[in-house]
Amino acid sequence: MRGIYSILLLIVSNVFMTLAWYGHLQVKQWPALAKLSLFGVIFLSWGLALFEYVFQVPANRIGSEETGGPFTLFQLKIIQEVVSLTVFTLMAVYLFKTDKLAWNHLVGFIFLVIAVFFIFKKW
Q: What is the pTM of this model?
């Protein structure tokens, strides 16, 4: 269960991360953002990033072998990357509506799945 909790917390963390890093670029969808100064956007992003860390740190602590979890540091990192790109892709396509999923994105995801295989494989 620790592994599942870790992954769920990483998903929530990455929603906040994506909003903090890229949400401010969506001024067409959220006109209130267009009125913010650069410093206003930075503070808004920092506020969202705080919640990213509120979920990221426990996710890593719960999931890490060092604290009783099932994952090594390398495994945690590759899980984080796959979750990050998956959450970003879903938000870019369905929330931000800035891009469409193309064949090359799917090929990239296949390579990520292959990376997960190699990281988790005990040789």
A: 0.83
